[in-house]
Amino acid sequence: EIVLTQSPGTLSLSPGERATLSCRASQSVTNSYLAWYQRKPGQAPRLLIYGASSRATGVPDRFSGSGSGTDFTLTISRLEPEDFAVYYCQDYGSSPYTFGQGTKVEI
Amino acid sequence: EVQLVESGGGLVQPGGSLRLSCAASGFTFSSYDMHWVRQAPGKGLEYVSAISRDGGSTFYATSVNDRFTVSRDNSKNTLYLQMGSLRTEDMAVYYCARAKQLGLWYFDLWGRGTLVTVSS
Q: Which of B61, B62, B95 sits opposite A45 (nearest CB)?
């Protein structure tokens, strides 16, 4: 079973700043089948990135994903007020399709 | 509007049963594999179960295997999760989710979740 470790646990930033979130896998992720989600309190999770670097429909281009193998990164180039949320990565390349524990981006 | 709406959560005693539902609207439900994901209080997301478009294939996480049963009614655009022999560690918000691509289990549409509380 692949374990995904996200860091940092909490990222304290201001609007306009750049956010860099890390997701490290205990084994290589098959075909870079790595997704990123955003979750805000009381809202449904939102798909941001799939295939490590492909933006989902409607996701602003300030969100970008990169990486391969065991190291992946979600970058938010310039934080907007609505971007403060918890972000999760997911390995969908192999069962049991684990999620990371999340990174909270706070003001 | 394209959406998923879960229902059926509530308080149940350890060892009890509960059935969750997920009503889909705004898209062709029968064209998508569907999934359940949960989040326990203070913890991360955990994958629970999957069902194929036609309901012919199912998958369960080890933690719920033999206790939970996933099903769907494509005529009613509804996904179900029958949960039995519930344990305190099953207490979580349960989300239903749609797989964006056939055979690839990442999710482009989620519901807001329904809370299951397991307590005596």
A: B95
